[in-house]
From TrEMBL:
Record-given protein name: DNA-binding MarR family transcriptional regulator
Keywords, sorted A to Z: DNA-binding
Database matches in Gene3D superfamilies: Winged helix-like DNA-binding domain superfamily/Winged helix DNA-binding domain (1.10.10.10)
HTH marR-type domain segment(s): 8-143
One GO biological process term: response to stress
Amino acid sequence: MIPFDDPRLTAIGLLTEVYAGLMAKMTPALTAAGLSEVDFGTLIRLARSPHHSLRMGDLAAQTGLSTSGVTRVVDRLERDGLVVRQACATDRRASYAALTDKGVDKVQEVLPQHLHDIEESFTGLLSPEQLETFLATLRIIRDVVHPCATAGAVEPGQIVRP
């Protein structure tokens, strides 16, 4: 019989509780800005990408959304003027999602409160050494459970053109 206090159950339980608590802390600022968690996740991934753009397939892979799911999110963000689709110069079958100036402004509007919430309820609770170890640990796990999370990311010095 497997014991109910198995550390594997504790680990996943703690991770779930932390995630739920953090989202409860961060969602009000996103909602006040008219964004869902998925909207913001999409915008911040674009903001942190070269030229503020990603191939639609890479955006789907990074966000963990299906192709149709990311299409719906990009459609909604495009209607709001936050994102625009751009044709790929080298592959007519592919397109990019790119932040507009309005999209960059929206991310900048949300970031101060978002970073405050992260600092207050998450990273600020850890020493620099603990945070470095925690981030390394998360990357190890992420690379196994979500290997496409960095799809479309480029190495320093690499040039990417939509």
